User: Fold this.
Amino acid sequence: MRTDTAGPQFDHSRFVHTPFGWYALTREPTDLGPFPTKSQASNALVDHIRVHAGLNPRNPEDRYSGFTVHDPENCAKNNCGRCAEALTFAGFQAIA
Assistant:
């Protein structure tokens, strides 16, 4: 096993920085975090993927590239990074 190579590279959208810390977003019911650094969130995601490898198959063609608005009031996750991110902006009103 080589130890001189960099760790896996993840899509930047898998990570969310909030006032609470860094979250790694997952497809499971619970996101990972918050962590003090993005590096720690990335390491947790590596471990998470290793544990869940093959348990949550998906079609590689199903890659989303669009715009999403997250609704914390109707979110089904227990520990959601997107909810934590949304709460950051809860005090801001939409500009009409």
Q: What stands out?
A: The longest helix spans residues 38-52.
